[in-house]
Amino acid sequence: MRCTSVKRDPALIPLTHDHHDALAQARRLRIAATGEAAHRGDAAAAFLEFFDTEAISHFREEEELLFPLLVEVSATVPDLLQRVLVEHIQIHCLVRRLRLDLKSSTVGAGIMLEVGECLEAHIRLEEKQLFPLIEQVLPASMLVDLTFPPRRRGGVPEPDGVSDAAGPAASAMEHDPNKQRGEGAQGG
């Protein structure tokens, strides 16, 4: 696969780093779904820990700090932004189902796969379409004033029984958030 380098506006890099962490978590959830049933509960619990401590605040920052800027400079709310917001809600719904399954000790592979695939597709949409739109239409002065709270780097550790054998560099993106792989694995 050919590596391409996409220069992300510095203001959006914290969100792109969050996306990288979320892609790794989604991948771990999908791997656990196809593995031993005994380890699904641990993997689901680790994903929920990530979601509660990192993903929810990420969604809020996008919705409260970034997305209003796009609406402010647009004549209407872009269809793409509406789609992204609906996907945020859909992800919350799927995570709720995963949480209920974990609570009742019936975590199935299907919901784990669905959460992982939905989250990955959502991230790809933001990185490939929404962020480039934002970089195109937002004036530099708006982006330069955009700041996000400091991040807790390192993510949530892998649950027992679930290993990412390919390693973090192969999780979905290169370590460098400005480097993205070919069309099927471009990340963010």
List keywords for this structure.
single chain; 188 residues; mainly alpha; Four Helix Bundle (Hemerythrin (Met), subunit A); two-stranded antiparallel ribbon; 61% helix; disordered C terminus
- Spatial strand arrangement across the major sheet: 1-2
The largest sheet, given as strand count, sense and whether it forms a barrel, is:
2 strands, antiparallel
The number of distinct structural domains comes to: 1
Q: In terms of structural class, how would the helical and strand content be classed?
A: mainly alpha
CATH topology: Four Helix Bundle (Hemerythrin (Met), subunit A)
Number of strands: 2
The multimeric state of the shown protein is single chain
Distance between the termini: 17 Å
Low-confidence stretches: 161-188
- The name of the CATH architecture is Up-down Bundle
Helix content: 55-70%
CATH superfamily: nmb1532 protein domain like
The overall pLDDT, averaged over residues, is: 84
CATH class: Mainly Alpha
Q: What's the helix-strand series?
A: EHHHHHE
The total count of helices amounts to 5
**Rg computed from alpha carbons, rounded to a whole number of angstroms:** 17 Å
Percentage of residues in strands: under 5%
